[in-house]
Amino acid sequence: MALNDAQNTEAAPDTSISYEDGIEYWNSVDSTVNGMLGGYPQISRIDIQGSSNFLAKLLKSSNLTSTAGSSSRSLGRVVDCGAGIGRITIGFLSKVATEVDIVEPVKKFTDEFEKREEVAGVGGMKEQGKCGSIYNVGLQDWTPQTSYDLIWNQWCLGHLTDTQLVEYFRRCGKTGLTSNGWIVVKENTTRNELDTDIFDEVDSSVTRTDRKLRELFGEAGLKIVATEQQKGFPKGLFPVRMYALRPM
Ligand code: SAH
Fold this sequence. Notes:
Bound molecules: S-adenosyl-L-homocysteine
Helix content: 25-40%
Strand order of the largest sheet: 3-2-1-4-5-9-8
Oligomer: single chain
Order of helices and strands: HHHEHEHHEEHEEEHEE
């Protein structure tokens, strides 16, 4: 379809989002890393490496930095939002935080998480006391019940409409963060030459432009304290950008 003026009179892409359709799609997906990453399981390692480098830079610039030199365990309680089977919790967050909560609407994914060897096995997250609460709800219906050092949102925010996203961010900024905490958003962005959000009817989500994401952060009263693009992903994928946010 031509990207002409006529487009401006059409309904905004996010109005096509259906929570029910999205959940139906995810319920049909395997509870595996391959399922979480849409057939690109090989990018998980580099994804987590990129996240870990980004967090290390944030910690370096903050009071949460451990002066003892070790960057591990420098975060207290954190939350993995839209966590799926806990790929990020297991591979990353549990290694840098004392306790990880999970928000994930699809119960079969969190059931899988709880069964994983790294969680239930000897020396796993459970034994180490790192498993926090699991909330089986969509983020549009979730309000933080405590304050976190880090609220991690990756590859799930396209399931919320613009309005839902702004309201969710406001709740997080208001009561969800410790005084040194961050909200991190790590999401696909549409390529620059396309200055419009794109609705994907397969999983009923939108991919937003970098400009739109920044607009929504601002509307929610959040400011960007750091941002960078994930490097090293295959060429055919959307550019993935990380943003660290704090209340203005
Ligand atoms: N963040 C994880 C999972 C990505 S897959 C990772 O990177 O490995 C996308 C996840 O978003 C799925 O687990 C899906 O169930 C979840 N999701 C779908 N709708 C959601 C909503 N409204 N709120 C929060 N999560 C949602």
